[in-house]
Amino acid sequence: MSAPLEHYGLIGDTTTVGLVSRYGSLDWLCLPRIDSDACFAKLLGRDDHGYWTIRPATAIRTLERRYRRDTLVLETEFACESGRVRLIDFMPPCVAPRDATRLVDEAHDVIRIVEGIEGEVPMHSDLRARFGYGRVIPWIQCAGGRATLTSGPAALAFSSPASLDPDWNAARLETNFAVRAGQRLPFTLTFYPSHELAPAHPVDAEQELARTERHWREWAGRCRYQGRWHDAVVRSLLTLKALTYAPTGGIVAAPTTSLPEELGGVRNWDYRYCWLRDSTLTLDALMRGGYLEEAQAWRDWLMRAVAGAPAQLQIMYGVAGEHRLTEIELPWLPGYEESRPVRIGNGAYDQFQLDVYGEVLNTLYDAHAHGLPDLPHTWDPIVEIVDFVEKSWQRPDEGIWEIRGGKQLHFTHSKLMTWVAVDRAVRMIEEFGVGGQHRLEKRLQRWRALREEIRLDLLDRGFNTRVGAFTQSYGSDALDASVLLIPHMGFLAADDPRMLSTVAAIEKGLTRDGLVLRYATETGVDGLPGDEATFLICSFWLADNYAMVGRLDEAEALLDRLVSLRNDIGLLAEEYSPELRRQLGNFPQAFSHIGLVNTAHIIEARRAGKEVSLPSAA
Ligand SMILES: OC[C@H]1O[C@H](O[C@H]2O[C@H](CO)[C@@H](O)[C@H](O)[C@H]2O)[C@H](O)[C@@H](O)[C@@H]1O
């Protein structure tokens, strides 16, 4: 069985990610891409679904771990009776060589250095790779301290400083060794396509460690945020950066699949894709942090993904812009803490979610406002998107939460975002003068009128006077945390009486132990059995609303609490159960880290007396 998800640390090279448990077990790794088949899938199963452990072969007295400052280099220190040992885990980042026109995305190494600190500690390395998400036993060839593990198109070259002892029956490579104070013993695992020759030499672990540390420190050093939550913000930004796919600029929602929203439940989804919503919010957090290069790479990714036919815009894509993300179940995996089914692919990819048009245009507006140069022809898809919104905004949809109960409702948040789509297009023309060459005067008149029509409709049908709140959908009494975004989007000021009473209603009716649920599952709106925990980004949105109306002490207290829910190395999953005191859902989740970065910025800005949202519309 896997460890609890909070026990995992993330290492990554900006093409893929590995999760290492507190006890040195690499239990999740997909190669060569973040959405490729896993070769270690114990996270969702058992030992025989694949892992690679390095740990003391003797009783551990204490254990401590941390990231090296401002990096994704993870250190775990074990104290044992005979001495102390440090395990240093990392993946050298995928970067462009100076003279290359493309990124090196073929090389993927996991490097684990065992460093003796005190005395002598007996150690054990145990590698059991299972390709195809834990199902396929590889063909192993082994000599001395080197081995290759091959399965179909994929192969791994494994190098150990101590001679390997293959267990052919269990298709497992073990080695026992001892590490003395001052010794540093490198293990490397390198992916290569199986039709090519295995690399002639293992990578130079020490050289790669130095390069990796330099790379991340330089990156983290560019963070513009200097406020009270600096360390937490930098850790979140590093985590978000680890969720980017450097060769294309794509950003995934999380590096895992099927970590459950309810233990033992069926709410288990694959998040290794680029949602326009999650990616645009990630980008927003990166831009706030000062990372405009990533913003530009994602904006360009977005244009490639959507520009062909904006009316066919999908709500999510693969990291290279793939369209088909068919959802299937993997019945051989028992699931994290028996939460079945394990799914790959995501059936929501062909849903109709009206909010994405607003998210895309909001990002293009922000990117322009941050000074990113527009791509040639950016305006063509914008015109088509707004024209599409004009035709479609009155249709029901599946909404921000991707309900699986069908398109029946007019979600308030969806309508809000159609207003955002039209508003940002209008403002890009009015404020930046973009699109001038398209002779948009006629459209501009029409779009202004459309924006007003949506605004009046939303105020009239989205605000429920019985409940005293903007509710989940038109005509419904149900609460929904997504309406907390109304002030962020500049639709109404946070201190508008309708927002104040909405916040009060959510505090009263949609929280557990002070943390916010996205909606009440009991209404059956999502078409799924079971329940879920509090959804972390929604609590950040509540803190933002507090900050925006000057309830700064409450905002800070809530942010401090949310920061305290991170695991020991600063990582957050999608949800948190106050009853179980456990994180739940995919891990680490971009949404939650986005929330942390944005809320820290908003509070700091408000403390400094600055405005944080766009001007109010109503
Ligand atoms: O709750 C049902 C849905 O859950 C997932 O969607 C959630 O995660 C997405 C990625 O972070 C996010 O964009 C969305 O707003 C969340 O509701 C799942 O991906 C869906 O397939 C599922 O229907």
UniProtKB/TrEMBL annotation:
Q: What molecular function terms (GO) are annotated for this protein?
A: alpha,alpha-trehalase activity
What InterPro entries would the database entry show? 6-hairpin_glycosidase_sf, 6hp_glycosidase-like_sf, GH15-like, Trehalase-like_N
Catalytic reaction annotation: alpha,alpha-trehalose + H2O = alpha-D-glucose + beta-D-glucose
- Which Gene3D superfamilies does the entry link to? 1.50.10.10
Keyword check for Hydrolase, yes or no. Answer: yes
> Which UniProt key words apply to this protein?
Carbohydrate metabolism, Glycosidase, Hydrolase
Top-level taxon in the UniProt lineage? Bacteria
- The broad enzyme category this protein falls into is hydrolase
Cofactor dependence? phosphate
Instruction: Give its E.C. classification number.
Output: 3.2.1.28
Pinpoint the GH15-like domain residues: 230-600
Q: Which Pfam family, giving just one, matches this sequence?
A: TREH_N
> What GO biological process terms does the UniProt entry carry, in alphabetical order?
trehalose catabolic process
Please name the pathway. Answer: Glycan degradation; trehalose degradation; D-glucose from alpha,alpha-trehalose: step 1/1
Occurrences of domain Trehalase-like N-terminal (ranges): 3-116
Q: Which family does it belong to?
A: Belongs to the glycosyl hydrolase 15 family.
Report the protein name in the record.
Trehalase
